[in-house]
Amino acid sequence: MESSIHWLPFGIILGILFILMFYLIGHSSQKAGITVTTLANKLSLVFPVLFSLIYFNEHISTLKYIGLGTATIAVLLTVYKKNVKKTNLLFVILPLLIFLGSGLVDSIVKYVQAVKISENEVTLYTTVVFFVAFLCGIFFSAFTKSKKFNFQTPTLLLGILLGVANFGSLYFFMNALNKTHMDSSLVFALNNMSIVAFTTLLGTLLFNEKLNKINFAGIVLAILSLYLLL
After folding, report:
1. CB neighbours (10 Å) of residue 136?
2. Which residues are in the EamA domain (predicted)?
3. pTM above 0.70, yes or no
4. 9, 17 Cβ separation under 8 angstroms
5. I need a surface site. Which of 57, 133, 217, 219 has the fewest CB within 10 A?
6. Nearest Cα to 175, choosing from 109, 228, 107, 128?
7. Is the pLDDT of residue 219 over 70?
8. Of 121, 139, 127, 96, which Cα lies nearest the Cα of 14?
9. Which has the higher per-residue pLDDT, 217 or 85?
10. 142-167: per-residue pLDDT in tens?
């Protein structure tokens, strides 16, 4: 019980940040555009990478530094769209908040994993984070709805599915930091880069989204970055 006291405040803070980022990403996608929002979210990897390198004094090879650089470029190329100039640039505050918020979330995850919890506490910690996020989401929905809100079955089922996926994402990510014996800076870079490349390919296969030459170059560069980082 004593050990849990050390990480409990971080679990509460992270749960609150999770639900805030969920609403921010949704709002930014509507106002600033999906491309800018995705870019801001994934480029936030620079925060946990720098945090790991500086705070934990991680040392990686020159080749892996090159891999980090090419991974960042790969993210930029993969999410690029020709109509990006049509994005309303007045809504710069939302992507900026997502950039800072996502970086803060990932940095907290790394700090807690390395300093505050043991490997056998990962499941409990993840449960606390998402329980807090659930409570905050219920409170926010009730507080912002002027009318009495009701749960629609499809929305509820999709919400549960999304929650389970995000729970698994945090759980397995923290276990990757614990058990792969890779530098955490590389784990963060691999994770974000792989998500962008995979979702781009999935969007092409399932939703017939068109990949331009720049997007394709980004995927190729992502694969090259993966090789350099391993």
Report:
1. 19
2. 94-229
3. yes
4. no
5. 57
6. 109
7. yes
8. 127
9. 217
10. 776 645 555 567 767 877 887 888 88
